[in-house]
Amino acid sequence: MTALLIGLLLVGLAGPVSAQATIGPAPLPPDTLVSRAGLPAVTVVATRRAVDLATVPARVSVLDRQSVVQTGAASVAELLGARSGAFLRRLGPTGLASMSLRGMGASQTTILLDGTRITDPQLGQLDLSLLPTAVLESVEVMHGASSSLYGSDGMGGAVNLRTRTPGAALDWQATAQGGAFGMRSGSAMATGQQGPVQLLGAAEYRLTDGDFPFVDETRFDDQTTTRRRNADREQLSLFGSAALAGAGRAVRVSGWYTAAERGLPGVAGTAATGERQADQALRLWAEGHQQRSWGRLRVSGLLQHKTLQYQNPALAIDDTGQTLLSSAEAEATVPLSARWLVSGGLAAAYSQAAHPSLASNARQGHGGAFAQATGRWGRLLLYPALRADTYRLTDGTQRTALSPRLGLNVNLPGLTGLRAKASMGRAFRVPTFNDRFWQPGGNPDLQVERGLMADAGLLLHRGRHRAELTVFQHQVRDQIVWQPDATGTWTPRNLQRVRSRGVEASYAVRAALAARAHLDAGLHLTRTQALNRSDPNSRSFNKQLRYVPQEEWKAHAALSTGLVSIGANVHYTGRRFITADESRAMEPHAVVDGHLRVTPVLAGLTVGFGLHLNNLFDTNYAIIRGYPMPPRHLHLRLTVQPSR
């Protein structure tokens, strides 16, 4: 399927090369795009088109390459945990990492790769620690309903991973890192042009022993400090991309392979069982667009194959599961008038999973149709969108969902750069293969989760400063919950009603303080009340959902003089209940990380020496109970690239 799609793209879209042509979504009319020097200016995830951050109808954060360098984040999980408004649930530094937006779970968040869904059809989520940042240009995080744009899962929001694009000029970069607990890594990236084709290649190899000391609170003797065992990890990532552009035509083909092998140390205080997990994923995708007299046509497709092997010698388990996801999409964008820009299209997907614990090989077909528009009346921008999705399941039954959304953005008078925004929409989540077919316990009769989401806020965007305040409320019904039945077997049911409401506030600035001094600073504040509203007779009724912090804030600041950069990140996580009735909780904690970088030019090369000190004040903490995080530790980073 992917080979056929790539062939059609090359035949239909290839043409004379033009240096001015670019790969990417068509922007709105020029008067809607406002350049904001110093801050990431454009987002795709909120509208499926390149739109200035000031004019989108939803809360969106864009984390660029500068954010990656400053945080030293090796994975998407580390980057989102440090700089976004999302809450990252981590089973230790090398374990599963998933995210929560507005009190919703990981399976209720859409994960996109260059605008295409890559969520695992068996698990309903992705381990964000397996996605390295070395191949990414930026990460976009949208808060709020995204089903009207991308389909299933978008109840809490969406994350779009934008990979690096090939360039015509020859460029390269090499990086090496080393640090505490056996951490070492190396990566390289190169881009250039071969004939009419622009090419980019990148590779990264990373490993760690993960044997850090921690305080074992389950022990009662004098020796309370022990070391984490079976927490090692080895990971490889390979990425390649090729682009061909002509007058009004462009096509890009990319591939990304990741492989990781790691130990699973389990809950602190329990005996090691030697559990291990090996993950492999291959993703191939292509996108092309052509400008026509009536507008713009875009086609895209993706093929994803994943393998997960789990071993537990103590229980004599050695299981391997595989999932396949293929998708294709066609979209046309047409300017109907000076006020309206309208786009619509069709989407199709096929997924399957095979695992010893699935009743049989699970299959699912999917078809969708979507339409969206942008309208302008003076100061007002309107963003209506509607999507219809049908899923055909293994047993021949069908699940359907209709997802409308209306968003608006108003340029308020009286203060330059002050805008109001609001949106309301419906979202849904289709049960995963595990939900329906896992043995024992799978429930093939599960209904689709559905929700109604609304938010409103104010944005002040002036020059290099951006401040935003948002209030939100989400109502979810038929949420799938795994619970033990009368025989003690865990099984999923459509039980839970959830009401999530809260406030989000943020501020960001990138400014020149002097001729060579630059400041990059930001702050995220979130207060979330995510309540179980299922059964008034239950002790958990009207109680906060487990592991959803009521308060969380993140702050960062970095000062750069061109040669030297120094900065810090502060992350505070509030109280999290670990029982459904709020009888037990994990206490708040704050973690501070710091960095110092020196980037001299030596022999025509820019050489970056970076020092990253994590958990500066040696905080004893865990994000999930029983999975400790590392104490204070250091890692060094060396980067070499041509001087510009």
Question: In words, what does this structure look like?
Answer:
The protein has 644 residues and is mainly beta. The protein has one domain (2-21, 35-194, 219-642): Maltoporin, Chain A. The strands form six sheets. The protein has a 22-stranded antiparallel barrel. Strand 22 and strand 23 (398-411) form a beta hairpin. The longest helix is centred in the N-terminal third of the chain and has 12 residues, at 2-13. It is globular. The chain starts with a helix and ends with a strand. The model is unreliable at 1-37 (pLDDT under 50).
Name its key features.
56% strand, mainly beta, 22-stranded antiparallel beta barrel, 644 residues, Maltoporin, Chain A, five-stranded mixed sheet, 36 strands, single chain, 5 helices, 6% helix
Query: How many domains?
Result: 1
Might you state the CATH topology name?
Answer: Maltoporin, Chain A
Count every helix, treating DSSP H or I runs of 4 or more residues as helices: 5
Give the terminus-to-terminus CA distance. 42 Å
Q: CATH superfamily, called what?
A: TonB-dependent receptor, beta-barrel domain
In what range is the share of β-strand residues? over 45%
CATH class: Mainly Beta
Q: Got a strand count?
A: 36
| Rough outline | globular
